Amino acid sequence: MMVWTLRFDDVLNASKLNDSLWRLIEIDGWRKLGGRLRMNESKKLELHIPKEFTPERPAVRFTHVTFTVPIGDHPLASQLPKATLDSHKPTMSLGSDKFLPLAVREGTPRTVEDLLYSDCPQLSLHVTSFTNATLVHLVGPHTLFDGMGTHMCVRAWSAVLAGKIHQVPPMSGGTSDPAASLGLGSEPEKAAKATEEPYLLASKQLKGLKLFHFTLRSLWDKFRRPNVETRTICIPSSLLQTLQAQAKQDLEKQVGEKSEIPFVSEGDVLITYLTLLIARAQSRPRPLTVYNVIEVRSRLKSVFAEGSAYVQNLAFGAVTLLSASEASNLSLGVIAAKIRESIATQSTEAQLMAFIHLMRQELDRTGKFLVVSEPDAMMVVFTNWQKARFFDVIDFSPAVVRTGDTSKRRVTPSGKISYHHCESLSENSQFRNAVIVLGKDHGGNYWLSGALNP
Q: What's the CA dihedral at 409, 403, 11, 153 to 10 degrees?
């Protein structure tokens, strides 16, 4: 189960938020969001959707609490991360896990099992109101959303809140999973697509002794450095500009004056910067496997129709393999270009189909996920949500009752979020060296949340 917290520097009408989300879920196709999770005889999850949503069987579980103090006077909420103005250095704040008491109320489902054996809807909405700010929390299973699925949901929610139901896109996959047959090759045309070309990194799939070596090394890393801390990091816009300039300079030096400089995005540079910080904090150089989660809706055009909403978890990955020497010696720009090349070459429709086909084969054969890496490498996982543009897309201005932050230095428009984070409710999460790029705020600062060794 995941919990997503949104901060608004305005006072919002909590009932309007609940009513509009409920109205969205009542739209044909979108009703799946109000379904009840069940386990079928094949031990597969399925959704049971009520014929009608009622107060007894609601579309969403809603709770609301009000504190008659400014957010800055609340002992916990006052510690929520804030951008450091006029700073050129990254700032590190408390991790998102420290704020779970604000987001999770008594009775909120905390595990998938809590949903399976109750009549609770998948989504829980909790609103925390202060005299000058509002926190909006959404709790639900990770099977329901990925980054772009969440983007589609909040964009549609904002449209309903504004009375623009005609802007809500049709929901596809409301009664069936459009991704269920991906990579299976059960039909002739899908079989051809799934095997159109071999997966580029198929030779790096870990099996047998190599997989045992990788697992043993990972267990040793956990034993040697058992503590993992979640931290929220703010990268100021001025630092990002410096990093981009450095990456450009590195690439100019590599390719020379006569060749075109490879394109690298802000995300590539940011991910490389963090990768190098993690790699060079190790006691000795090690190979690195950089795993970038990528969305597939816009890339698998033969499967997902443009203009339709697909709200489910549809995340796969692109892998960049770096030797110990490369991780230790290559420049910021050169590694960023390697990461960009990996994403570009591995996110074609043919490559995604080949990867998914191989992944399904591994699941059928062993019941475990595909691992692509060198046996002795350290894995670093990134999820970049900037494409979802949450700071821009979420617009709850129709629910604003009163402006909270009235200072002249405010850069966030009314009804837009000034900060957000996402956290797992699992008490046994083993994630480490995992970073979510939460996106770029209205001041040009990038926000990240990472589970890292202290």
A: -70
Q: Helix, strand, or coil here: 393? A: helix
pLDDT for res 186: 43
Q: Where are the alpha helices (DSSP H) in 256-331?
A: 266-279, 324-329
HSE-CB for 32 with a 13 A CA cutoff: 21
Q: Please, what is the angle between helix 237-255 and helix 266-279, to 10°?
A: 90
**How many beta carbons lie within 10 A of that of residue 89, not counting itself?**
11
Catalytic one among 64, 74, 142, 442?
Answer: 142
Token pair, residue 402, equals 């009163």
142 catalytically annotated: yes
Q: How many angstroms from the chain centroid is the CA of residue 379?
A: 18
Measured between its terminal Cα atoms, the distance across the chain in Å is: 25
Domain co-membership, 288 together with 213: yes
pLDDT for the residue numbered 368: 83
Q: How many helices (H) and strands (E) does the chain have?
A: 12, 16
The CATH number covering residue 255 comes to 3.30.559
Whether residue 80 is predicted with pLDDT greater than 80 in this model: the reply is yes
Local confidence band at 177 (pLDDT 50, 70, 90 cut-offs): low
Residue (of 229, 236, 165) closest to 431 by Cα position? 229
State if pTM tops 0.85: yes
When computed from its CA atoms, the radius of gyration of the chain, rounded to whole angstroms, is: 23
b or e along 152-180 (b: 16 or more beta carbons within 10 Å of the residue's beta carbon)?
A: bbbbbbbbbbbeeeeebbebbbbeeebbe
When divided into structural domains, the chain yields a total of 2
Residue range of the domain that includes 155: 2-83+93-176+387-428
